[in-house]
Amino acid sequence: MPPVLVVNVLISGVLAGLVYGLMALGLSVIFGVVRVVNFAHGQMMTVAMYAAVLLFAWLKLDPILAILPVAALFFVLGYALQSSIINPFITRPEHSQFILLVALATIISNVLLMGFGPDARSVQTSYGLNSYAIGQILFDQSRVYAGSAAIACSAALFAFFRFAPTGKAIRACADNYLGAKVVGLNVKHLYALTFGLGAACVAAAGCMIVLLVDVTPDLGSYYTLLAFVIVIVGGLGSMGGALLGGVLIGVSEALAGLFFDPAAKSMFSFALLILVLLFRPQGLLGRRR
């Protein structure tokens, strides 16, 4: 196996993994603050992928540029979904939350199937087949743009939670729910903001990943499962862990496709998950509870 080919595949895996990490970051943020596992996460990303496809078909809007309007729309929808439907289930047993969100995921998948049919749809950009070259090392332009956008979105989210007053308030709710209520924070509003941010993250990831794969209505279940694998590998509730897990999964999938068969990529992702669960159950960057 030529070393340059392995390097090119590794680069491709890292760039795709950054997008995976942003997708999982939305799931991790929601769980870390609201303590609700969003089983409709992948279906929400599928909706964002279709939104990017439609904007490209109707307005010729590049999926990278579509990130802003689609993420903003999903933030509003996520806020409304949390405040109107999910919030009453916060204090209910976990199986009630599970059933609610699985039902939501099923509804989304079937609405997409009725609206768009079973056929795959894609975006054909002018740079879709182009690459940047440094010697024999190739950087696929679509993956470079998607990975760079994922880094920018992740950095903005980290900065928000680190420096913005609202971000600090959300972190306070995550650390001590009762204490946050005692000091007068509007916890319900902050929970809805958090869910909106998580929805915006997955929407942005959907706009990016449509550059890499075709979209079908049943794609959501796969990406929901992949997001779970990533956040468990990185550490449930850890933002940095979500990005690290995404990169590791992206690299493992790329190497599996190179050395074995593209159909074996899920096998390697789950093998990595099993190893992490055996030797570091809290995840690579997770904290013991």
**Helix residue percentage:** over 70%
Order of helices and strands: HHHHEEHHHHHHH
What is the number of helices?
11
Q: Which secondary-structure class do the elements indicate?
A: mainly alpha
Unreliable segments of 5+ consecutive residues: none
Rg estimate, integer Å: 19 Å
Largest sheet geometry: 2 strands, antiparallel
3D structure, described in words:
The N and C termini lie far apart (44 Å). The protein is globular. It is built from eleven helices and two strands, in the order ααααββααααααα. The chain is mainly α. The protein has helices at residues 3-34, 41-59, 67-86, 94-116, 141-163, 165-175, 177-182, 187-209, 219-234, 239-259, 265-279; strands at 131-134, 137-140. The mean pLDDT is 92. Strand 1 and strand 2 (137-140) form a beta hairpin.
